[in-house]
Amino acid sequence: MAVHLEFGVPGTRDARVRTTWMSGTEPVVGWAWVQHGFARRGRHLEGLAGALASAGISSVRPDIASLVPRHSMHDPAFLTAVALTIARAVESGIPQTRGVALGPSWVGVGHSAGAAVVTHVAAVLAARPDGPGSPRGLVLLDPVDTVGGLLRQALRGLPDDLPIIALALPPSRCNRGGETVAWLGRTGRVEIVALADLSHADPERIPSSLLAADVAPAGRSARWACGPAGSADRVAALGEVAVAQVRRLLADDG
What we know:
This protein is α/β, with parallel strands linked by helices. The chain has 8 helices and 8 strands.
């Protein structure tokens, strides 16, 4: 069951962030911050959140305004305020009182520009002496950096030993020809998992069941901009890989 919570964001003029929380099935092994890409919303990764829940991983999916320059995925100050707002909600037990079991550890999961956002969030929370603290790792789904290089800047603020896994999909207009993944590979600190026969938009088609029969058809605009869509079998397999990587990071909790 999804729990919807909306929070005011301190330090902004009437900005609010809408979040969708989903509790994992028992026993819950941890939780994930699941972040949508540019000009998208949390609902676009609902299937992935459902698949994580079935694997015992709770999640939060914040809706980050993408098209308003003052409060957007390209505004580090706003994203920092959002990170602290959600961290304080966890510390205060707000989602827990609504039946969301979070577990002791968390992992950042971001698609496209959402990968830059969760990397920034991880750096912000790693610097705090209390609260959720550093994630167990990051799973970046075909990452794309934001205007201003949010991901590049945030990476410098993370512990050198933090596991970071990037699932790389074929180059297209949507992922800027794969330039962000290529740069991450050159840093030497990111594990790159290349997956063929898929599209940059395919993470949004992952079904909660992880069954090929439940994979939604690809939209026409996504096929034009992001390349040929993956088959139902390939999209279901992509979901299995993503969930397995999150579980692996949470299992490493020492």
